Amino acid sequence: MTGSSFAFRSRRLGDTDLERIQEAVRQAERESAAEVVTFLVEACDDYPEARWRGSALGAVAVLLPLLAVDLLRPLWGMGPLLWLGLGSLGAGAGLLVSHWEPARRLLTSAALRTRRAERRAEVAFLEERVFATRAGTGILVFLAFFERAAFVIGDEAVRAAVPEDRWTALAERLVSGLRSGRTTEAILEAVAACAALTRDAGFPPAPDDTDELPDTPRVRPR
Fold first, then answer.
1. Are strands 35-41 and 218-220 parallel, antiparallel or unpaired?
2. CB–CB of 213/33 below 8 Å?
3. How would you class 41 by CB atoms within 10 Å of its CB: exposed for 0-12, middle for 13-18, buried for 19 or more?
């Protein structure tokens, strides 16, 4: 298989990583009735809040020191247009900096990023029709890189059979792997765990099992 099999190239994972994830999904579905969908998104939103906050902070960073100096020693040569120009320059610099990923993360709250990631995971569950399997054993393994968030969402039958804390623990391990730089391994472990949870909950592979959902990892910019 070549990289052209994937809808988008991930800047976080290489083609070999994506192929390993696809093979892990196939193995999980051979070992259980699970239908696993892996969904990887670069960022769940473009976060306009970061842009206007960056602009505001940039303007303040330029003008505040000048205002402090002006209070101590009036800057007689600076007219209103010069003040406006310097403020605009600072705002533009702040806007530019806000496109840098670490700065964008600092300019948004963790709670906001988690909410956006959770909402995107819910949309992905519907988009990929994880709910439409014959036995209700579809499972979405969702990972958002910018937000450093992960969710594992099971369809009705398998979710009802597995305690909620098991799903939560699985998602937390996935996030831990992402933050420690073990992204591919963490995804592989999560997929294997989905198979184990499904099988142990009473959903072994069916004799007439068919592949109901594509095994290829979904990689999206948003």
1. parallel
2. no
3. buried
Residue-wise pLDDT for 7-50, tens only, equals 344 667 889 999 999 999 999 999 999 999 999 999 999 888 88
Alpha helices, H only, 73-217? 80-97, 101-106, 110-127, 156-161, 164-179, 183-200
Tokens of 59: 């303007």
CA gap 162, 94 in Å, rounded: 47
Q: What burial letters (b/e) apply to 153-182, b meaning 16+ CB within 10 Å?
A: bbbebbbebbeeebbeebbebbbebbeeee
**Strands 218-220 and 138-144: what pairing?**
unpaired
User: CA 34, CA 201: separation in Å to the nearest integer?
Assistant: 11
Which burial class, exposed, middle or buried, applies to 197 when counting CB atoms under 10 A from its CB (0-12, 13-18, 19+)? buried
CB count in 10 Å sphere of residue 48 = 9
* Nearest to 143, CA basis, from 24, 42, 11, 215: 42
